[in-house]
Amino acid sequence: MTRENKFGMLANLILVMLMSASISQTLYTSLFMTRTLSLMIFIAVIPITLLFFVMFRTKLSSLVSCILIAVILTAGSAVIIFKTGIESALIWLNRYSIWFVDITNGYKDISVPVFTTITILSTAFIITLFVFIFTIKFYNFYVTTIMFFSIFFVQLQLNISGSDLSFVLFIFSFLLYYFFYILQKRNGEKTYDAGNRIKYLIYILPVCIIVIAITFMFPLNQGRFSIPWLDTRIDKTIDRVINKFSGVDVSSFDYFSFGISGFGKTDKLGGNLKLNNTHVMNVKTDHSNLYLRAASKVNYDGHRWYTDEGNFNSLGLGLVYDRQFNSDTSLMFMGLLSALKGRTFSLDMNQNDYFESSAAEVEFVNMKTKSIFMPVKAYNLKFRSPQEVLLDNEQMLSTKDIKGKGFSYNLRYFNLNLKSEKLIDLLRKSSKSDVRTSIRNQYNVRILNSDSATPAGSTDINDSNAAPASNINDTADSIYTNYTRLPDTVTPRVRELAQEITKDKSNNYDRAKAIETYLSKNYPYTLAPGTPPRSRDFVDYFLFDGKKGYCTYYASAMTVLLRCLDIPARYVEGYILPPEKKDGVYKVTNQQAHAWVEVYFDGFGWIPFEPTSPFVANLYNDRTISATISSDMLDTGYNDYMEMMDRYRNQGAAVTYDFDTETETDSGMKKPVLTLIIISAAIGLIVLVMGTIASINYFKFYNLQRKIKKGDPNSSMLIAYSYILKALKFQGVTLHPGETPTQFSERVEKIFDIKSFSFNKTSFTKISGYYVKARYSRDPLTHKEIEQTLEFINVLLELIFEKSGRFKFGFSRYLLGRF
């Protein structure tokens, strides 16, 4: 191996180890969703790199290695199948595949050491192979750069947890890779020195280690460096460009679903969310706690909510639709009638303790859909032009055709006073048997306008717009059947938790409130909870393992917990309003896409509940209610979203940030230790490499002396003279073309005066005479002349040591092996 190849190979091997370790650590922290580095990777990368060096050193070794690996794999597989059986082997592979999917989806509690070790070693093996190929076999700066930076880009875009230290290590190794790339381009230049690579490594590594060590002594700010106004402008610009040129309207859908609103990705529950602030609609109303629902899901399968498709009833073509599209409103009056036990009573629509008659106008902006967004107790819908309206089984409305920007409609609805003690008392007393008995009786209910209490302003509850008592009973029976149904995936401990939370409650309202409060107080809100494992029930994982999430997590958990108690509940999706108006209009974006819960009460229909911690204050119009938010949301990337959530509450309302104290403590304990281990390992590796190189070069010189001393004197003289020329070249003195050995020796003596330096014991002129004799004379040299030559070499090395200095002499001779 030439000098160029020797030093270039050594430098490249060290570079392969650094890059492979950093990329493998990055993939490890992403796959296992942890910030803790794996020492196993650092240990594994070294022998793997050396193994590849041996395997792919020549074409023949590469061919033999590939054949050998194929034979080993085949033989190993055959032995395993023979001993365990093919069925057991397939079961094991299936277990590993399930384990791997669960781990990558964020389920951290599955711990199978064998699987973990296999995954770590396989990752290190594959990455090291890739780096080795494109660093040593086919040096390609661009392929490596694109591939590896893509890993970090994807990690950032998907908001995947990763190790900062692995990124720092990668940047350092990448810079080395780039400088080596520059050095390689200079390979053809006369000033290029093959030793520059290893020299660069040895000079720069200790400096970088010291800098990294000092850096880790300072407190770590978890948030990235951010310029808020610049971040906001960049995000808005990117959103505008994407919306304009992508060709895909993220807010375009036939029927609304949280998963395709731009806030999420699919209908499958869980996973990290990337914020989308597309402006979808404008809403004019006097009530900021308006919840506009567009989808209600009855069926839960452990991973998603869904509704039976294809059941739509046409309400005809018209401009105005009254209570025929929402029997829930009529049912509410039935409930009031039943609870108040009166034959006749009047309710002022603008002044009562139960609800307030309200109005709203909805206008689509950047949205295309058939869905109509309505509050739960709507009783009047008016369009600007005739529309054919469809009603599904969940009483969700839609138009026959997709509507887009500019489409608008007006609503009238009853805004429930959910804080009213009188309404709460009625809901507590709601009883299936009492309500249904009362409904069978005849009552005369007058709903009066705010400025009149005359019968002329009344509406009979049993008119054509109201559902007959028998239909209401049938509907209630159907609701109790459909909305208490649960799949087998719901675990016994979820049912036990529902019982435990509500053990002291005597009615369905208090049970629902207890579950709502339990979820909002004990489970921190975050948009980055990780993906739940495929093999687990979503609600079970959230309640007992994940323990943090966003609205779909809370709403799903509350719905399932209520159904465990045989309380009818349903999962609802739609939009809430932003906390403040702009120019008299609530400008709703996809950041307000939301999921909540509706609970069925006999005689009152569906009543909304809000278990999602930061939004409880909004539904109940009580800005003093506190919220529990995960520390993940303190990342500067969520600044705007956090400000929005803060505006749902008063500034004085308490906010509890849930810091993972166990993780923090462990991290605080492990980080210095881990840093010390890594630094020590790196220093140890450097010392080991340097010691190995120095030892090799020392023994090479020792071998050279032994060969000169023991060999044929004439041959030994030629070897010795070649070494002397190499040593003199290090001092910048070389044999000129056409210059005889005698002329060269005289010039060297004039420069170094070796004869005087050795106190007349030896001189280069005498040694050159021995060389000429060995090369051109038939007379053989004597062993004494060889001994004098060896003595000259020692004198020359002393002279070089004196002129170069201890460090340069040792570095060049023992580490670079230049002489």
Fold and architecture overview:
The longest helix is centred in the C-terminal third of the chain and has 50 residues, at 661-710. The two termini are 16 Å apart. This protein folds into 3 domains: 3-218, no CATH class; 258-659, no CATH class; 692-815, no CATH class. The radius of gyration is 40 Å and the shape is elongated. It is built from 26 helices and 18 strands. It is an alpha+beta fold and 819 residues long. Helix 19 links the parallel strand 17 and strand 18 (655-658). The strands form 5 sheets. Strands 1, 5, 7, 8, 9, 10, 11 and 14 form an 8-stranded antiparallel beta sheet that branches. It has a 4-stranded antiparallel beta sheet with strand order 2-13-15-16. Strands 3-4 form a two-stranded antiparallel ribbon.
What are the main properties of this structure?
single chain; 819 residues; alpha+beta; 4-stranded antiparallel sheet; 18 strands; 52% helix; elongated; transmembrane helix; membrane
- Coarse morphology: elongated
Number of helical segments with 4 or more residues: 26
Distance between the termini: 16 Å
Strand content: 5-15%
Give a quick account of the main beta sheet: strands, pairing sense, barrel closure.
8 strands, antiparallel
Estimate nothing, just give the exact number of structural domains.
3
Radius of gyration: 40 Å
The tally of beta strands, per DSSP, is 18
Structural class: alpha+beta
Whole-number mean pLDDT: 76
Please bin the fraction of helical residues: 40-55%
Q: Low-confidence parts lasting 5 or more residues at pLDDT below 50? A: 220-225, 245-250, 442-467, 660-671
